[in-house]
Amino acid sequence: MSNLRDIAMSVKAWPFEEARRVLKRYEQKPPEKGYVLFETGYGPSGLPHIGTFGEVARTTMVMRAFRLISDIPTKLICFSDDLDGMRKIPGNVPNAEGLQEHLQKPLTSVPDPFGKYESFGHHNNAMLRRFLDTFGFEYEFYSATEFYRSGQFDKILLRAAEKYDAIMEVMLASLREERRKTYSIFLPIHPQTGRVLYVPIKSVNADEGTITFHDEDGTEMTLPVTGGNVKLQWKPDFGARWAALGVDFEMYGKDHSTNTPIYDKICRILGHPAPEHFTYELFLDESGQKISKTSGNGVSIDEWLTYASTESLAYFMYQKPKTAKRMHFDVIPKAVDEYHQQLNAYEGQDETAQLNNPVFHIHGHNVPNSDMVVSFSMLLNLAAVANAEEKDQLWGFIKRYAPEADPETHPGLDKSAGFAVRYYNDFVKPQKTYRQPSELEREALLDLRSQFAEYDGPLDPEALQTIVFGCGRDRFDPLRDWFKAIYEVLLGASQGPRFGGFVALYGVEDTVKLIDDALSGKFLSS
User: Fold this and answer.
1) Total domains, the chain
2) Among 390, 394, 400, which residue's Cα sits nearest to residue 379?
3) Span 315-329, mean pLDDT?
4) Among 24, 38, 356, 493, which residue has the fewest nearby CB atoms (within 10 Å)?
5) Is 127 found in the same domain as 63?
6) In this structure, are 395 and 493 located in the same domain?
7) Which of these, 252, 304, 260, 302, lies nearest to 280 by C-alpha position?
8) pLDDT tens-place string over residues 141-179
9) What does pTM read for this prediction?
10) Pick from 116, 150, 184: which residue ends a domain?
């Protein structure tokens, strides 16, 4: 382990780079709280989504790397901001009209429109925990409501009252002039209506730990800052939560980056060092627009898992987190195949390469073997030419290519076959467009058909690829025009697999028939 730890201290994989930054905080002495704290936040106004998965998955990767380079215990907290007031009624809940009277109340004081939990906040928290548990994340769940009302936040709230002017100075510098006139870091929670009030604060008494303000009807009220009677505005809350918990690491999206200095300053004013933070780039949809929960663009977690495994999604999340990435359905096949390529490479790599391999950061030291004897992209093309409606239609071809494989011994391949059929029918089939070959292309395809018809060798992808290459080499310049013709005439797509490998899987005789059908115009009339 010591040798592996030495290697881990120099590898370039980003989770190790982040882990080393966290470890540097404790070069002189270990944390007084006894552990290093990693945190992720969740706004429970809606259901957890793919960004929630990415944030927890990536934080887990950093925590896993930290455990390899340090013996200091670690803890991951998922913190739900469920004391926030409900500012608008979600459009995707039942009984929405019954929520109107509960606007501005904390989410944990709003009735559950689904009728299953104590409140809407409790409902969404339960969804979050079920979501995280589905993926096997190790975490502790914290509720802001419980945190404020139980007194766990009291010490920091009293400290915020004491340092009120200093914190206000930080906040006011970031606000427009009109907003400055009414802004306060404290939001009272009305003792009768239970609503979160956005009202000016008349005075803050640090000695007594109270705030005085005018209610919306003009009545002067005084409340203690402790015991859940007030909450902090979201930016001060960020820094105060770091201080209260002793957070050592938190990551968040680029849209938070301009607020990072504010969070840090408030945390320090409250007497604690700011944590290490990691800002990741946001995901983009097919047209390059930022993915939004409200607009529903991009790919949801359920949609990804309809067409591919959790591990392929974790692989996608691992890749270049500081680079904006399109997250549309067409990225799924590439992510699946690259994930399995990395699995296949892992066993033969030295320790440095293994620690730089994405699959280590997904699985830790328990990296599984891949049973994908056929790539996902090849399964998609097989589904396309077979017009498959069920995965069993693919297994006849797979077993001819790899006789040792079956659904029981290759469960990952079996699941991928099902994913491939689903993906083909939903995305590939509607886009298939065949065309007639040119005279030169027809000549080359007839040559290919003739050589395949006479072929009596083994189903060797390289030998078959050599034949494909030979039929186009002297006819096409550039040669990629030949392969483009193969895909468009035979498969109805502008790109496709390495054709020799496809023939090995689909079968030489079946490929001869495929060429015959294409040249006869059968696909043009279908």
Assistant:
1) 5
2) 394
3) 90
4) 24
5) yes
6) no
7) 252
8) 999 999 999 999 999 999 999 999 999 999 999 999 889
9) 0.91
10) 150
Q: Residues 346, 403: one domain?
A: no
Angle between helices 120-134 and 50-69 in degrees, nearest 10? 50
Strands 210-214, 220-224: pairing is antiparallel
Sheet holding 140-143, edge to edge: 140-143, 74-80, 36-42, 249-253, 276-280
Range of the domain at 48: 2-150
Q: In what order do the strands lie in the sheet with 220-224?
A: 201-205, 210-214, 220-224
Q: Can you tell me the distance from the alpha carbon of 319 to that of 177, in angstroms, rounded to the nearest whole number?
A: 42
Lowest mean pLDDT across 270-279, 322-331, 383-392, 421-430: 322-331
468 shares its domain with 333: no
Residues 484 and 398 in one domain: no
Q: 449 with 351, same domain?
A: no
Of 26-40, 273-287, 344-358, 367-381, which range is least confident? 273-287
Query: Is the same domain home to 127 and 29?
Result: yes
Q: Which amino acid is at 512?
A: V
Residue labelled with tokens 């039942």 = 94
- For the chain, what percentages of helix, strand and coil (3-state, to nearest 5) are there? 50, 10, 35
Q: What is the DSSP string of 381-401?
A: HHHHHHT-SSTHHHHHHHHHH
* CB-based contacts of 176, cutoff 8 Å, min separation 6: none
